[in-house]
Amino acid sequence: MDTMLVDWCARHLGSSPVEQFFGVQHLSAVHGLRLADGREVVLKVRGALARHVACAVVHEAVWQAGIPCPRPLAGPAPLAEGGVEVLAGGGEGNEFVDARTLAV
Question: Which of 17, 47, 80, 82 could form a disulfide with 99 if both were Cys (CB 3.0 to 4.6 A apart)?
Fold first, then answer.
């Protein structure tokens, strides 16, 4: 399992993944993870955009209104943090990008 995803879950969800039960990558990457505390979560990783914050606010409001959808637990937040570039697979084939430019 990608150590950046493990670190992200520990930082933002308070529990590390113990199993990946699905994963798909095309224009973004989607990972279904089982955490050590028993929760099953889905992480979507894609290029960070300013509009993602507004999307998360709307998604939370939809969940709060009782519309059936998964509750946002965290994010959007950078996949990697710090002052040093960290390369990660992008969404297009073998392309690599700075993980600090990707949001979960």
Answer: 80
Report the pLDDT value the prediction gives residue 26, as an integer from 0 to 100: 75
The answer to whether the peptide bond before residue 70 is cis (omega within 30 degrees of 0) is no
Q: How far apart are CA 48 and CA 88, in angstroms?
A: 14
Model pTM above 0.90: no
Whether 78 contacts 48, CB under 8 Å: yes
Q: Amino acid identity of 54? A: A
Tokens of 103: 């949001």
Question: What DSSP line would sit under 43-69, residue for residue?
Answer: EEEEE--THHHHHHHHHHHHHHTT-SS
Q: CA angle, corner 24, sides to 18 and 4, nearest 5? A: 45
- pLDDT > 90: percent of the chain: 53
